[in-house]
Amino acid sequence: MRKFNRRTATFLVVMLIVTAVYVVQIYNIISFPSQMDIFRGENETIDILFPFTVKLHDNNNKREVLKFIEDREEDESLKVSVRNSYKFKSIENGEAKLEFKLLGLIPIKNVNINVVDNLYLVPGGNTIGVKLETKGVLVVALSDDLVGIDGKKHSPSIDAGIKVGDVITKINDTNVKNASHVIRLLNEVGESKVKITLERNEYEFTTEVQPVKCSQDNSYRLGLWVRDKTAGIGTLTFYHPESRTFGALGHGITDVDTGSLMPISNGEILKATISSIEQGKKGEPGELRGAFFETSGSIGKIFDNSPFGIYGTLGRNYDKIPSNKAIPIGLQNEVKTGKAYILSTIENDKIEKFEIEILKAQPQSSPTQKSMVIQVTDKKLLEKTGGIVQGMSGSPIIQDGKLIGAVTHVFVNDPTKGYGIYINWMIKEAGISLDKKTLPKAN
Fold first, then answer.
1. What's the rounded mean pLDDT across residues 285-302?
2. Does domain 118-132+231-443 have CATH number 2.60.40.420?
């Protein structure tokens, strides 16, 4: 009886282990990105366990895009065979599909493959000054105690449904230029109600507000505070020398009070110089402090402030900034855990290499600022900054000679660690299409 119980227990343990292994395998397959870009002429490998299979479907009738291969000889029969390791080679530009199945019958996951030409970009690493002027004005605070000449407290904007984070674009159909323009328009209208056009979460709507004549200065006001510009420093991630398109920061520029993404009407980047460093500590992110001077001239114009970085076109004098050599990009599926390095500037306007470790690379089907978890291992950088600090956002991440992404954020409780974004998402935001081999035209 005891032998029977032992055998039963052993069998159950083995079954539990086997079940756990295959549950993990199914999860890994389901978590696999639904779309992959692969460079033409390169090989890729997918490892799975029996009884899962991978089948190749070529979407191009006349041209072979992908081909399964063995270590030495190509074998077309592998398209339907059961293996632990599937190796395939990209032949021509185009589309194909990999179908994961259980026992060759039950569909588990489809992965669309795009075979594209490689793209070469110049990695940055140099510190830049960033200036933004908002589209309209951003509402950063509201007041419920605006005292009018009647001696009473008013809250006209709150009563009209205006919220912090809204962008005022028009007053009575006149485009708002800046904060002082708002005051001028209100005083031209006087006591009459005004129509306010606002943008909130990318939606536009209008509301009516009754301005109140303030007892302090006899000016007409709406009971709100607005912001129309911002400035700071960051790091250039890349530029494309042919189109002069650049990307930087790896995350968007948000308002310090509201956390809202700053809507831009005009923006520019300038050459900047590091003046001091505040070391990062647990619970206290550090900072690169720098200066830039408008007299030195603009390096480039910003055309987009997105959640995944700022993008624009470098000016004719962009050759004045420090420059590296163009290198190929590395796509998401090429990124692996292990050693890499970042390019950044922490002193003397000199771009330097600093060693890091990629601790985790997330499979992603859509853009996010948190594609990778990285850790600084470079002794010099740790001594100087304590790890990742504000101002280093945008520092390009390079692995195996390829530009794979950029630094985006620091872990507040551990400044040696932070997040990185895949370069895929940044070049997409920059308007560079790998599928169509198109690049934004230089202005």
1. 79
2. no
